[in-house]
UniProtKB/TrEMBL annotation:
GO terms for molecular function: cysteine-type endopeptidase activity. Residues 6-132 form the Caspase family p20 domain. PANTHER family: CASPASE 14, APOPTOSIS-RELATED CYSTEINE PEPTIDASE, MUCOSA ASSOCIATED LYMPHOID TISSUE LYMPHOMA TRANSLOCATION PROTEIN 1/PARACASPASE. This is Caspase-3. Signal peptide: none annotated. It comes from Cathartes aura. It holds the Pfam family Peptidase_C14. Belongs to the peptidase C14A family. SMART domains: CASc. GO terms for biological process: proteolysis. The lineage of its organism: Eukaryota, Metazoa, Chordata, Craniata, Vertebrata.
Length: 244
């Protein structure tokens, strides 16, 4: 009999409550993030991923979770969703300690554990990448360029082979989250629940960009502020990770 192909794995990390080393609450509580992560986990399960959903992990625990993945049996793809506070190139553990994304990539592409080096590793990262607000640009007009050009490529150059990273926002900017969830992961959820999940990954991510750019706008304090996701990939072939 034909043996069943191994199941692809997904690791979802969502941090909603943050403490400093002396136990004080820092950053805001990320309301809405936990329910959204649960919904994404359910969708990935339906698309035949073996999902590990974790909540409020410290920086060290986050690194350990990726180390554990290196010892697991893997299918065709590895997907990871991280929802937390962040800065450029960094996400925060619930202990408010930083984890460099390059550190996570290194762990997964370690020659010592070649199981993960060969398969596409796909990251969706919902976290701020700085403190700038994106007020959007009027499409018809030539001016309205941002005041400063963030150093867009610094973080991108260190992506190892077979890796795709999609960020909620452009370098230097904040990412929005409210009680209903985040613009970015809500758009990803919508795409994965619909027919677009059958698209090649780069087209699927472009679709998420479109959803956030045209269908999302901050309300309240940041009325009218926008968010522009972006992705970087060095895959050499089209992949269809969600076309189960």
């Amino acid at each position: 009999s034909m043996s069943q192909p191994r199941q692809s794995r997904a690791l979802v990390i969502v941090n909603t409550d943050f403490r400093s080393s002396d136990g004080d609450a820092v950053f805001g509580t990320r309301r809405g993030a936990k329910r959204e992560a649960e919904k994404l986990s359910n969708v990935l399960s339906r698309l035949n991923y073996k999902v590990k959903l974790t909540h409020n992990k410290t920086a060290k625990e986050i690194e350990d979770l990726y180390r554990q993945e290196c010892c697991c049996e893997h299918g065709e793809y590895f997907v990871s969703i991280i929802s937390s506070h962040g800065e450029e190139g960094v996400i925060f553990g619930c202990d408010s300690e930083p984890v460099k994304l390059t550190r996570i990539f290194q762990i997964l592409s370690s020659e010592k554990r070649p199981v993960l080096t060969k398969i596409p590793k796909i990251f969706f990262i919902q976290a701020c990448r700085g403190r700038e607000f994106d007020h959007g640009v009027v499409v018809e007009c030539d001016s309205g360029e941002p005041e400063r050009e963030p150093d867009c490529f610094s973080g991108y150059l260190s992506i190892p082979p077979q890796t795709v990273v999609m960020f909620a926002c452009s370098p230097g900017y904040v990412a929005f989250l409210n009680v209903f969830g985040s613009m970015f992961l809500q758009a990803l959820l919508k795409v994965l629940e619909g027919e677009e999940r059958h698209l090649a990954l780069n087209r699927l991510m472009t679709r998420v960009n479109w959803e956030v750019a045209f269908c999302c706008q901050a309300r309240g304090t940041y009325e009218g502020c926008k968010e522009m996701p972006c992705f970087v990939t060095n895959l050499l072939q089209e992949v269809f990770p969600f076309s189960a």
